[in-house]
Design a protein that fits this description.
It contains 14 helices and 15 strands. The chain has 390 residues and is α/β, with parallel strands linked by helices. It folds into two domains: 135 residues, Aspartate Aminotransferase, domain 1 (Alpha-Beta Complex); 239 residues, Aspartate Aminotransferase, domain 2 (3-Layer(aba) Sandwich). A seven-stranded mixed beta sheet has the order 4-10-9-8-7-5-6, sandwiched between helices. α2 packs parallel to α10.
Amino acid sequence: MEKRINLEYIKEIVDKNDEWRGRTLNLIASENIMFPEVSIKMYANDFMHRYAEGKPYKRYYNGTKYIDELELECVKYFCDKFECAYADVRPISGAVANLAVFASLPHKSGNVVTNSLPSGGHITHNSMGTINKIAKRKVYNFPTAEKNPFKTDVDGAVRIIKRVNPDFIVFGKSMFLHPEPIKEIRSEFPEINIVYDAAHVFGLIYQNEFQDPFTEGADIITASTHKTFPGPQGGIILMKKHMFFEKDVDSAMFPGILSNHHLHRIPALLATAIAYDEFHENYAKRVVQTAQQTAKMLAENNLEVCGYDGKEYTHTHQIVIDVSKMGGGAKIADYLESKGIIVNKNSLPWDKSVVKPSGIRIGVQEAVLKGKDSKEIAGALLDAINQYMR
């Protein structure tokens, strides 16, 4: 007789996942756990049951006085931190933040220039995603540097931008190893809006351990709040100064995209920012250093670590490895999972198919938050791969 689904079954699966993931080495680059100071109570609370459509003190529902207070404080905290004029903490993901921005920026040519998927660009920036399907822009991609396809060919990018006269430019990647050429592009194109998708590197930027997009010339930052910034799953939009399309972004968020914006995220998000500043001032530095040291150890042990720029393999939390000679990214990712190490398969710039990618992508941010160092991370990976190769 088929097993009947009940509450005990669901609890059992949840408990099994908690126990299993608790003993794995999680190296997924887009995931993290929250700081220990940010208690479950700050996330799982009465706000999860409530609605607050609109903006603080201008809601369409009553009963919102406490979330109004917290949301305004959260907005103010991020504006102060980034010395910017505008923050919206309502996006429930980085992809939703991108959608609101991409749909709101003014149409002129109808073109945009972004990083391609093979070179690490995110799906929301490309033809099969938000920027084309919903924001209705034609996508052109930055060319990659001949010697390092994980970096942008600046001269080639300038030529494309001049040719297509884009409505705006999108920097930022999903496979993200090195800083983006914001300064160089801004100096050539002072009038074009630059959006910087900081989803993966937001926590590094937060502690000045990566490039500063606003100082270098970006107009808008979008980000996830749960990767190198170890907060609740969600997104954020920041603008350096008040822009004439600001109200369009507001209305894109509500009523355009969201009704409720999952209110229980807000206290946890603000608590994460405060905990980052007060208790974890070296976290971002440790993340970058751990990634760089781990990459070197793996390369020294004959793994094909990608992205070397003459000094480092990475300037972020990520490491990318070409495992095509071992059977490809999917095969290695599955094998590592069987050994308690969670990574993701990833296509590389020279791959012809995303279905059979050559690479794996590693992120060290959760391991660092759990107290792991580069020796432990590299050692676990090398032990597993050596067993696989025997």
